[in-house]
Amino acid sequence: MTPSRFRRPLLIVAAVAAVLSLAAVGVVMAMAFNNAVSPVWITSTALYGLPAAFLLMLLLVIDGVAARRRTRRPDER
């Protein structure tokens, strides 16, 4: 499905997106606790970053399963 040379960069992008969006969620919550409004870009990162990272990681899991099935030995079926 995905060439192996793209798996590692996709994994890194997904992990960075997840970490950044979790940090953005923390910033939004801290600002809301202080009765302040967070900037739009921080709120957007919090809202869209985690689902995007989740979908990328789901794609990588599905690709890993498909790759494992392709490389399975004939006597294991």
UniProtKB/TrEMBL annotation:
UniProt entry keywords in alphabetical sequence: Membrane, Transmembrane, Transmembrane helix
Tree of life domain: Bacteria
Regions crossing the membrane: 46-67
Protein name: Sterol desaturase/sphingolipid hydroxylase (Fatty acid hydroxylase superfamily)
Species name: Arthrobacter ginsengisoli
